[in-house]
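Supplementary Methods S3. Complex input for the zinc ion-bound model.
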Amino acid sequence: MPEGDTVYRTARNLDEVLAGAVLTKSDFRVPKFATLDLAGNTVEGVVSRGKHLLMRVGEYSIHSHLKMEGSWHRYRHGTAWRRPAYTARAVLETADWVAVGFDLGMLEVVARDDEDSVVGYLGPDLLGTDWDPALALTNLQRDPAREIGLALLDQRNLAGLGNVYRNELCFLRGVLPTRRVGDVADLPRMVELAHRLLDANKDRVERTTTGNLRGSTDWVHGREGRPCLRCGTLIQRGELGDTELQLRDTYWCPRCQT
Ligand SMILES: [Zn+2]
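Predicted complex, serialized as structure tokens:
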């Protein structure tokens, strides 16, 4: 599951090879944009906003979201794709490169000056140059009765956290994911830690919240039934979501987290 750090890295990898280049071909394999042809337009750049990706091309902005399985790759012409062609949703070519978006959870093309209609609702971007911890805190505190595990995932509060980070953050701050926002001690430190974790991981391919790249890279996420790395108590798993359709796995140590 791609989180903000993955999307940030994706944007940078694409920006490296596409920025300033003219598209020689565009192929959107979704019905709504199947006839749209952006060939001849110059790519201004590729940026991330939380877990969203914006590719700015001429007067347009290609907005995509990786959701669960999505990814963007860049290839030299004539090299084999690492994922099946039938999963490609967008193919963008320049003289030197081919960018392919596979299994994108969302793909749409909007006018550049209409970007706000697709990402304007997002809270402060944890990896943005305009990261605003005070605003993120205010947003979180708006609903003190909400479970912290849900509030952290709500991209309107702060943008970039996914399931792995919310579970790890709750562990690192010693709070259960079900604890109410209003009952979380030192919420500013949690916001600061969220930023620090994403920032520390944004330049490396393998994510770690424990600081280890060998051995366990996570404290609790995905470790149900295994001993807590701090106290040895067995890690538990549950589900948390605003609705039944949005349930996501939570993991916690019943001793380290209260
Ligand atoms: Zn523990």
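The chain is about 20% helix and 20% strand. The chain has a mean pLDDT of 96.
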